[in-house]
């Protein structure tokens, strides 16, 4: 199975095929696996390096405001929601797909979970509805892509449009505020665990579980295999279609969790929620080292990607710089990150 | 084929406009000359049923509270008049789609058109076409590029909104030395955001003791309001007043302020959402006032359209004709006058 899934993404490289695959899957093997570990480490280290540089910039320009526990809590909190979405997105991309509907699913789930009717069921009702709506949307995406043989780009684009539309239909354009104190208090300072906001704990849990699933389970290996070469994966006996369905379900689940977190953070549901999440999540995954063509990617890289973007935006706000400058910087960083990656992967 | 139609339409349109202009000139002058001091220029406020008027209404997609309120106000006002039939189109943010909808309304031969363009400049041609077809256009809020494209413009005053917010804050802080003010703006690439900020800055210039220490742009969503405000609070450890351009994003901003446990400043909102007015009335948060951008302008537009359709003037003015331009006042709603404005607050 491992052998047949070999021709991974590095085109032009004349290196040994199986090695390439093993490197990404981190499955056994002596020589190639060690270089793989080393390479993954280089990539992760370079991302940590970027974060360190950003921390220095922040610390030098605004020492009092940036280097401060409350600011660290703030950055992690703001990263947590898009971070959870990005973990799901990373699975989909590694599996050779794309999910453009994440922002719209977050919007729909957050809106559905904050209607007057749902709020009658309190905390549990809101949590349950967010997650079920997210998973249901993921199910539709998965069925369309895996069994309906639709191109992922198109299927999830359709979901993006209709989920946003449905969200607008439900709210009628109004902002639905949440009045349930158990939900609102989840992000109150009193709920912090050892100084860590609960939202950040959820983010950490999702990250750890995501990392374990991608790196330590058959599910994870299958994901990499169908992303690297679906035909080979099929010949190796993997049910490619079912695996694809699972990946979109997983992304939907992450969106549902993110929607709940957003409700807690903002105390409301609005159909404009999750605006451009799809682009933020894809960008974070890409600069984290996930190949857009599938077959390779790391959860740690994606999470670092999210943290980098959030930290940049934090430094910009603390220094009171304009939105335009911020957007330019974001674009430049994506291009730079992808260029650096190309270098490390072809060398 | 389409070219033929439009050329023909243009010819007919031009003919219709000239005859239309000629006719209106005649009708409106004749009675005036015959009865000088007689206030026979039937006032608009007159609720008695008159000539039947069909009003076509085309607006953008009501994807947030204010735009939703625009539709509600227009519908409610039209219902009030027995002689008015309202042809309302499905809202669209797509310029091409909206042009198509206006074409349809022109073909249906409505008597008057009320247009709130998704994009004023881009929709100018649609306004011109309607005017050429002899249908007077009431341009609501987002102004066309060309004065020939509308008979009457009615809309809010973004500059005035900033001005009034600045003056209100200035008066509150005038006895305070080295007062610091923070601005949470709306979507930065919109003209209206620039105008609001210009007005705000102009007003603050009258108070040399006040300095604007920070300005960040959110994007009118609760989520962005929460995110930007939480970081602004981190950046500014202490300040005296905050102006937030938009009450929708204000829901998120208020949540961030509560989460940070800050209350040393006073906050002024913008637009006039019901949630903001409720908070001002309750007087239990930092929010002490909001500057209106009144959605009642849609009701006024229906009034103007009805008057145009019935060839009537406006009451309380000496003019025989309806003015070509009406800029509405951005009132400051505080605890003292909130009761009066609460019914106009949007969700």
Automatic annotation (TrEMBL), chain A:
Keywords: Cell membrane, Membrane, Transmembrane, Transmembrane helix. This is ABC transporter permease. The chain crosses the membrane at residues 42-60, 72-93, 100-117, 123-144, 151-172, 192-214, 245-264, 299-318. GO terms for cellular component: plasma membrane. It is a multi-pass membrane protein. It comes from Streptomyces triticagri. Residues 1-31 are annotated as: Disordered. Its main location: membrane. One of its GO terms (molecular function) is transmembrane transporter activity. It comes from the Bacteria. CDD domains: TM_PBP1_transp_AraH_like (cd06579). The lineage of its organism: Bacteria, Bacillati, Actinomycetota, Actinomycetes, Kitasatosporales. It is found in: Cell membrane.
Automatic annotation (TrEMBL), chain B:
Residues 55-310 form the Periplasmic binding protein domain. The keyword Signal applies. One of its GO terms (molecular function) is carbohydrate binding. It is found in: Cell envelope. The keyword Signal applies. Residues 27-51 are annotated as: Disordered. GO terms for cellular component: cell envelope. It comes from the Bacteria. Residues 40-50 have a biased composition (Basic and acidic residues). Keywords: Signal. Belongs to the bacterial solute-binding protein 2 family. PANTHER family: D-ALLOSE-BINDING PERIPLASMIC PROTEIN-RELATED. This is Sugar ABC transporter substrate-binding protein.
């Amino acid at each position: 199975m491992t052998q047949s899934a070999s021709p991974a993404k590095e085109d032009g490289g004349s290196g040994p095929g199986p090695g390439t695959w093993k490197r990404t899957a981190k499955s056994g093997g002596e020589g190639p696996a060690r270089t793989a570990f080393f390479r993954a480490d280089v990539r992760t280290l370079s991302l940590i390096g970027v974060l360190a540089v950003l921390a220095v910039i922040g610390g030098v320009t605004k020492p009092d405001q940036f280097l401060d526990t409350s600011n660290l809590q703030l950055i992690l909190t703001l990263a947590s929601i898009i971070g959870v979405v990005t973990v799901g997105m990373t699975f989909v991309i590694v599996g050779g797909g794309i999910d453009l509907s994440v922002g719209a699913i977050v919007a729909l789930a957050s809106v559905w979970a904050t209607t007057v009717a749902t709020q009658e069921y309190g905390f549990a009702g809101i949590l349950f509805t967010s997650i079920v709506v997210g998973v249901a949307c993921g199910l539709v995406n998965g069925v369309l892509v895996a069994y309906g043989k639709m191109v992922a780009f198109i299927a999830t684009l359709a979901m993006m449009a209709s989920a946003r539309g449905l969200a607008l239909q439900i709210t009628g354009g109004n902002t639905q505020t949440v009045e349930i104190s158990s939900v609102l208090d989840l992000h109150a300072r009193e709920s912090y665990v050892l100084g860590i906001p609960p939202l950040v704990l959820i983010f950490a849990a999702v990250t750890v579980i995501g990392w374990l699933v991608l790196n330590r389970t058959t599910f994870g290996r299958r994901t990499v295999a169908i992303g690297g070469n679906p035909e080979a994966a099929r010949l190796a006996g993997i049910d490619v279609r079912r695996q694809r369905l699972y990946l979109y379900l997983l992304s939907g689940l992450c969106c549902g969790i993110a929607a709940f977190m957003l409700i807690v953070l903002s105390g409301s549901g609005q159909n404009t929620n999750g605006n451009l999440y799809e682009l933020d999540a894809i960008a974070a995954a890409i600069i984290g080292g996930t190949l857009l063509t599938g077959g390779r990617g790391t959860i740690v890289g994606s999470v670092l990607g999210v943290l980098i973007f959030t930290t940049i935006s934090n430094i910009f706000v603390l220094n009171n710089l304009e939105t335009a400058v911020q957007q330019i910087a974001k674009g430049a960083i994506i291009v730079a990150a992808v260029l650096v990656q190309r270098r490390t992967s072809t060398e | 084929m389409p070219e033929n139609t439009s050329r023909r339409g243009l010819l007919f349109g031009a003919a219709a406009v000239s005859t239309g202009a000629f006719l209106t000139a005649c009708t409106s002058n004749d009675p005036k000359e015959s009865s000088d001091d007689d206030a026979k220029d039937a006032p608009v406020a007159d609720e008695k049923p008159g000539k039947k008027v069909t009003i076509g209404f085309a607006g953008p997609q009501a994807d947030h509270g204010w735009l939703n309120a625009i539709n509600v106000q227009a519908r409610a006002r039209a219902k009030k008049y027995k002689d008015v039939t309202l042809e309302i189109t499905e809202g669209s943010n797509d310029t091409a789609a909206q042009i198509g909808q206006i074409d349809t309304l022109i073909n249906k031969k409505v008597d008057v058109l009320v247009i709130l363009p998704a994009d004023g400049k881009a929709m100018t041609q649609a306004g011109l076409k309607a005017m050429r077809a002899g249908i007077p256009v009431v341009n609501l809020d987002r102004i066309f590029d060309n004065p020939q494209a509308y008979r009457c413009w009615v809309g809010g005053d973004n500059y005035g909104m900033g001005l009034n917010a600045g003056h209100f804050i200035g008066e509150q802080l005038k006895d305070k030395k080295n007062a610091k003010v923070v601005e949470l703006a709306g979507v930065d690439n919109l003209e209206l955001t620039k105008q609001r900020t210009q007005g705000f800055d102009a007003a603050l210039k009258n108070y040399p003791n006040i300095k604007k220490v920070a300005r960040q742009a959110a994007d009118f969503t609760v989520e962005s309001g929460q995110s930007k405000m939480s970081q602004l609070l981190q950046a500014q450890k202490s300040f005296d007043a905050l102006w937030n351009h938009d009450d929708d994003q204000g829901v998120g901003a208020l949540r961030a302020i509560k989460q940070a446990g800050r209350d040393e400043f006073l906050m002024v909102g913008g637009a006039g959402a019901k949630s903001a007015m409720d908070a001002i009335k309750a007087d239990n948060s930092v929010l002490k006032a909001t500057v209106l951008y009144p959605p009642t302008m849609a009701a006024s537009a229906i009034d103007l359209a009805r008057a145009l359709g019935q060839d009537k003037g406006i009451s309380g003015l000496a003019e025989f004709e309806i003015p070509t331009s009406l800029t509405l006042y951005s009132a400051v709603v505080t605890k003292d006058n909130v009761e009066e404005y609460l019914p106009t607050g949007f969700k």
